[in-house]
Amino acid sequence: MSNLQPSGPDAFSRAGELLRQGGIVAFPTETVYGLGADARDDGAVGRIYAAKGRPSFNPLIVHVPNLGTARTYVAFNPLAERLAAAFWPGALTLVLPLKAGSVISPLVTAGLGTLAVRVPDHPVAQAVLSAFGGPVAAPSANPSGRVSPTTAAHVVQGLGDAVDLIVDGGPCGVGLESTIVDCTGTPELLRAGGVPLHALEACIDAPLAQRTHADVPTSPGQLQSHYAPWGTIRLNVEVPRPDEVYLGFGPMEADLNLSPSGDLIEAAARLFACLHELDAKGVERIAVAPVPMIGLGVAINDRLRRAAAPRDL
Ligand code: TXA
Ligand code: MG
C-alpha cells in the first residue's frame, strides 16, 4: 500500500493504528505538515529523529487536542492560561514546566525539564489526534535543516519512504511554523511564527521579552542555518543581478512573487512553497525583495534570514 493517502476516515483510522504501533505519520496542521509519533514511546520518537536526520539535542513539540489535555502534561500559570485561552487552537506553542511523573519520553524534551505543547487548529490534525487518543510529538515533516513542508508533495519529496503514512490534507493555511513562547518565567519569545508578536503583546498586556543570541539556545530552532534551500539567497534586494532568480513581494516584476498585492498573510502561506519550487528547479542564485518587518513579516524575515545563512548543518 502507498504511504500517501488522502485525508478521510480510512486515513485517520490507519494513522491512529500506526501511531499505536510505534509508527511515524505525517499530517497537516494549519502551520506546516508535522511528522508525528506517540510522545510516550521512546522507540517511535527515535524514529522521528532518524527519519529527519535531526540532532538529538533538539526537543520536539507535543500536539494535544485541547487545553484540558495539555494540563495533564505541563503546569500552567495565569499568563500561560491567558495565552492558551486566546490562541488555542492555533499557531502558538507554549513552553511550560513538565509535570512530575510525566509519561512523555525524555527524547521529546531532550532532557529539559520543560515541554513545548500546542493545540493545532486543523481538522485533519484534530482527527488524527482523536483517532490515536494520545499525545503526538511532531516536528515539521522535513529533513533536518531543510525547508518546512506546506503540502503532502513536499513531505514525499523530503522524506518519502522513511514515513509510514502521509495524510494528504491539502496545502497548509498559515504556512509558517507556530510562534513559540517560553512561559516558564516571564514570557519570552523563542521563535517568531504564525501568531504575530503584537497579538501576543496585546493579550498579555505587556511587551514580550525576546531571547537574544548571546543567551543559551534553549530553543534550537534558533540554530542559524535552517530552512535552507539548495541555492544561495540574497535578501532585501531591490534590483536583482542578471544571474539571479527574483522572488518578489508586492506589485513588481519578479520571476516568482510571495504576494503580488503585498499581503503578508498570503506571503507567509506561500513562502515555503516558493522555496520548494525554486529548489525543485535547481535554481542556484535567489534574490528576495524586501518584506516589511510588521505583523507576520517578522516571522517571514526570520525564516528568510535562516535560509540565507551560511550552511553549517
Ligand atoms: O508549527 C509548528 O510548530 C510545527 C507543527 C508541525 O506543529 N512544528 C514545528 O516543530 O515547527 P519543529 O520541531 O520543527 O520546531 C520545534 C521547535 C524547535 O525549535 C525546538 O527547539 C523548540 O520547538 N522546542 C521544543 N521543545 C522545547 C523546549 N522544551 N524548550 C524550548 N524550545 C523547545
Ligand atoms: Mg522544523
Protein described:
This protein is 32% helix and 18% strand. It is an alpha/beta fold. The chain has two domains: 4-210, Alpha-Beta Complex (DHBP synthase), CATH 3.90.870; 232-308, Rossmann fold, CATH 3.40.50.11030. The strands form two sheets. The protein has an eleven-stranded mixed β-sheet, with helices on both faces. Strands 12-15-13-14 form a four-stranded parallel β-sheet, with helices on one face. The longest helix has 17 residues, at 264-280. It binds threonylcarbamoyladenylate and magnesium ion.
Largest sheet: 11 strands, mixed
CATH topology of the largest domain, by name, is DHBP synthase
The amount of beta strand, in percent, is 15-25%
CATH superfamily of the largest domain: DHBP synthase
Q: Into which percent range does the helicity of residues fall?
A: 25-40%
Mean pLDDT: 92
Structural class: alpha/beta
User: How many individual helices?
Assistant: 10
- Global shape: globular
Over all CA atoms, what is the radius of gyration? 19 Å
What is the topology, as strand order, of the major beta sheet? Answer: 1-8-2-3-7-4-6-5-9-10-11
Order of helices and strands: EHEEHEHHEHEHEHEEEHEEEEHEH
Descriptive tags:
313 residues, alpha/beta, DHBP synthase, Rossmann fold, eleven-stranded mixed sheet, four-stranded parallel sheet, 32% helix, globular
Task: Provide a quick synopsis of the model.
This protein is of the alpha/beta class and 313 residues long. The chain has helices spanning 9-20, 42-52, 67-73, 78-87, 106-109, 123-132, 152-159, 197-204, 264-280, 297-308, and strands at 4-6, 25-28, 33-38, 61-63, 92-97, 114-118, 136-137, 165-168, 179-182, 188-191, 209-210, 232-234, 245-248, 256-257, 285-288.
